[in-house]
Amino acid sequence: MLFIPENELERALVKAVKVPASAPDFYRLLLESDLLVLGTVEGKEAATEAFTLAPGGNLNLVTGLKDGQRYLPVFSSVLRMQDYVKQESKYLSINGRALLDLTRGAPVVLNPASEYGKELTAEQVGQLLGPSHPASPRRTVVGEVEYPMPLVEALTRVFAANPLVEAARMIQVTFTDRAKEPHPLVGIEAGPSIDFRSLVDAIQREAEHAAPGTVFDIHRIDRATPNGATEALLQAEPFYVRGTRQKLN
């Protein structure tokens, strides 16, 4: 089938194949653009409109098989996905950088059934994203678990007392070296002048009192320099927003 570019990313892909010197522009757009991936979010299988990932949302992604090796097929447009999948299938639209970071360690194939595509090994994905922080094991979103209300209430008290905390979100995560121990990841948006270390200390003191034994991690959300954890957290509805009354369903 004749490949007619559907968007800026596909135009950059075609140009990169024909003019290799333009490849950096393609890779930039690959990270900035929304990519399509086959799969669903647990509890949202029947969704027909855009939605955000709820706290504890579970991403179930469909993989492909090539030469005995599993890979993640991703697509630059609905038309490229239709080249690959001949029957009606559920799919998600996710920012490229967030998707690659969440699935870091897996090989990826862009447009596997189209004339123009790109195969990326796990190592190439890592080079594209840059090194992960060695002090912070890789996180991935995992399945829904009971919402930790004592922790949420403790956090809300701390945030309400600090005028520089703007909002907070929560997802459930696991570490690659502790796959059977999922726990909350708390994302905090705050003003640039906040003493974040003091805020973390206050959170730990309140949590030890109100929710003893609860294991959780804290991540500062920086929209100016997003990474995989930030992108995943921003898909979740905030459980705390300054200036509004908090209500959890």
Topology of this protein?
Layout: H1 8-18, H2 23-32, E1 34-41, E2 59-61, E3 64-66, E4 69-75, H3 78-84, E5 91-95, H4 96-102, E6 108-110, E7 118-120, H5 122-129, E8 139-141, H6 149-161, E9 165-175, E10 178-190, H7 196-210, E11 217-220, H8 228-234, E12 240-241
Parallel strand pairs: 4-6, 10-11
Antiparallel strand pairs: 1-2, 1-4, 1-5, 3-4, 6-7, 8-9, 9-10, 9-12
Helix pairs in contact: 1-2, 2-4, 4-8, 6-7
- What's the helix count? 8
Helix and strand content put the structural class at: alpha+beta
Mean of pLDDT: 80
- Can you give the helix content as a percent range? 25-40%
Q: What's the CATH class label of the largest domain?
A: Alpha Beta
Largest sheet geometry: 7 strands, mixed
Question: How would you spell out the order of helices and strands?
Answer: HHEEEEHEHEEHEHEEHEHE
Indicate how many domains the architecture comprises: 2
CATH architecture of the largest domain: 2-Layer Sandwich
Shape descriptor reads elongated
Calculate Rg over CA atoms.
Answer: 20 Å
CATH topology of the largest domain: Alpha-Beta Plaits
* Low-pLDDT residue spans: 133-146, 176-180, 245-249
Strand content: 25-35%
Query: Quick one: how many beta strands?
Result: 12
CATH homologous superfamily identity of the largest domain:
Cation efflux protein, cytoplasmic domain
